[in-house]
Design a protein that fits this description.
With about 200 residues, the protein is α+β, with helices and mostly antiparallel strands. It has helices at about 5-15, 45-55, 65-75, 85-100, 140-155, 180-190, and strands at about 20, 25-30, 35-40, 60, 100-110, 110-120, 125-135, 155-160, 175. It has one domain (about 5-190): 3-Layer(aba) Sandwich (Aminopeptidase), CATH 3.40.630.70. The strands form 2 sheets. The protein has a 7-stranded mixed beta sheet, with helices on both faces. A two-stranded antiparallel ribbon has the order 1-2. α5 (about 140-155) links the parallel β7 (about 125-135) and β8.
């Protein structure tokens, strides 16, 4: 079985590919066409969600519970008995996190982790990997905070890989051809962005 290492993962993201485990735990790499991205300059926050963000209902933390976020994202959900986030993927991304390339944005309420997301930051690219929510809007609020952080840090590309669920559409997610994604990725890798 393929051994995921931080160097292998960084090389993969720099080429526009990413890993997922199949139902047997085997790691496969993907390079979808088309590719889904959130345009950072036109990311749209619906009015109701903007009120929730402003309300302070959730406390947002960054990188305080990276492993817990990954494990929550890996939990089975409605219509999904298993997930592509295997034990080996968790271990590899924890190493990336320790090296400063993988980050989590977490929504907490009354001291309990109720939502969040994680992904990989490489130069001007942030590749969103997965998100979870145990309370309404928790992961969406984390996403809004992620976008604010990426804009402030000089990022130029927020990759969401696949179109995913319909709720992404409300934020302005778009699909672009693989060739256009690779062009934008090359430009993003020339950008000196900062997540902190």
């Amino acid at each position: 079985m393929m051994q995921l290492t931080p160097d292998l993962l960084i090389s993969a993201y720099a080429q526009g590919i990413f890993p997922m485990a199949d139902e047997f735990g085997a790691i496969n790499f993907y390079d979808p066409n088309p590719r889904a991205i959130f345009p950072l300059d036109s990311f749209y926050v619906p009015r109701r969600l903007a009120r929730t963000v402003r309300s302070g209902r959730f406390t947002i933390r960054v990188d305080s519970a990276f492993r817990a976020v990954m494990l929550a994202c890996a939990e089975p959900g409605p219509g999904r008995a298993s997930t592509w986030i295997s034990d080996s993927i968790v271990a590899a991304y924890e190493e990336l996190h320790e090296q400063g390339f993988a980050h989590s944005v977490e929504a907490w309420r009354e001291g309990v982790l109720v939502g969040g997301l994680y992904g990989v930051a490489l130069r001007g690219l942030f590749a969103g990997e997965s998100m979870f929510s145990r309370e309404r809007d928790a992961s969406k609020v984390a996403l809004v905070h992620l976008v604010e952080r990426l804009r402030a840090g000089g990022y130029v590309l927020l990759d969401t890989q696949f179109l995913g669920s319909d709720h992404f559409r409300q934020f302005g997610v778009v699909e672009i051809p693989r060739s256009e994604y690779k062009r934008r990725l090359a430009a993003a890798l020339r950008v000196d962005a900062s997540f902190s």
